[in-house]
Design brief:
By secondary structure, the protein is an all-alpha fold. The chain is built from seven helices and no strands.
Length: 141
């Protein structure tokens, strides 16, 4: 089906508006905190407490949010005595109350990813991956 000239112009205008919105705010509603702040909070928490506890909490949180159990975010934020973890959880809890469930889930998943990147397991996997690209000496028969 072909578009008329008017439909094509409207489509191009709408596309232009979307591109403009994305340029003005490249991540409008997909995270509850700036990327660098999530990374920093994950680094602080994993340096102090280790990687596994944060990953476990964030993966559990992300799965609960996906399943529609958003009350878990608020409960965890209220129960946390860790100030740094609360800095990460409070905006997620606020986002859930505002109906921005996807943003809260994405933030939890990203925090878990950053925590994993701070782990020795990640470093081992990275080294194993990079070893595949090392040049091996060729032998002649």
């Amino acid at each position: 089906m072909t578009m008329t000239k008017g439909e094509r112009q409207r489509s191009e205008k709408a596309r232009g508006r979307m591109i403009s919105l994305l340029r003005d705010d490249p991540d409008p509603d997909h995270l509850v905190l700036p990327l660098d702040e999530i990374r920093l909070l994950a680094l602080i928490i994993t340096t102090r407490d280790g990687t596994e506890p944060l990953i476990r909490k964030m993966v559990t949180l992300s799965e609960n949010v996906k399943a529609g159990r958003v009350d878990v975010v608020t409960r965890l934020a209220r129960q946390s005595k860790d100030h740094t973890l609360t800095e990460l959880l409070a905006p997620m809890s606020q986002a859930v109350r505002e109906g921005r469930v996807v943003a809260a889930g994405n933030t939890a998943f990203l925090a878990a990813s950053f925590a994993y990147q701070n782990s020795l397991d990640y470093l081992r996997e990275l080294m194993k991956y990079l070893d595949r690209f090392k040049r091996r000496p060729h032998t002649r028969n």
